[in-house]
Amino acid sequence: SMALEEVPITEIRLPDRAVKPPTTRGIATAKAILGQWGPVMPLLISDDGTLMAGFELHAAAHELELVTIKAVRVSSLTEADRRALTIALARLPELSKWDAGVLQTEFKELLSLDLEFDLHDQTGFTIGELDVILEDAVAADEPDPTDDIPEPPAPEHVVTRPGDVFMVGKH
């Protein structure tokens, strides 16, 4: 069974081993989300308060010095179930992929609005990643003229010719 609770941050335990520890970038994005919209997604914890999902949000909440955070407490899990579920939940986002066209449309439409936040801070995409996503799809399929490498000039004095064999001594 599950129950949504307001849990003191100090009562949430980290697992002995973090199979997928939060990154600096992930924590920064979680802090931006919490700062802009508040705690919109609960953590997932076991009966004993061990964190199972939401590691970035938990770290961000600590850095922001939040006293409590919403968490879903999952009960009736064995230790093996808790550990396996923690791994499965960490892996799950990696098993899906972005729809590049839809993502591009979403970002273009968001940029046309009067946003009160930086799109890259709140979404976790770097400015460079956003630039690549927002490039015109047609232009991305056309060759970039700056990628053309000019042929080097022919040398005045040819040193080697195709088929030449070189004898190399001991190295």
Primary descriptors:
171 residues, four-stranded mixed sheet, 39% helix
Kindly describe this structure.
The chain has 171 residues and is α+β, with helices and mostly antiparallel strands. Helix content is 39%, strand content 12%. It contains 7 helices and 4 strands; from the N terminus they run βαββαβααααα. Helix 1 crosses helix 2.
Q: Specify the helix fraction band.
A: 25-40%
**Uncertain ranges:** none
Q: What is the first-to-last residue Cα distance? A: 71 Å
Which whole number gives the mean pLDDT? Answer: 90
Largest sheet: 4 strands, mixed
- SS class: alpha+beta
What is this entry, summarized?
The chain has 171 residues and is of the alpha+beta class. It contains seven helices and four strands.
Task: Spell out the blueprint of helices and strands.
Blueprint: E1 2-8, H1 24-37, E2 43-46, E3 51-53, H2 55-63, E4 68-74, H3 79-91, H4 100-111, H5 119-123, H6 127-134, H7 137-141
Parallel strand pairs: 2-4
Antiparallel strand pairs: 1-4, 2-3
Helix pairs in contact: 1-2
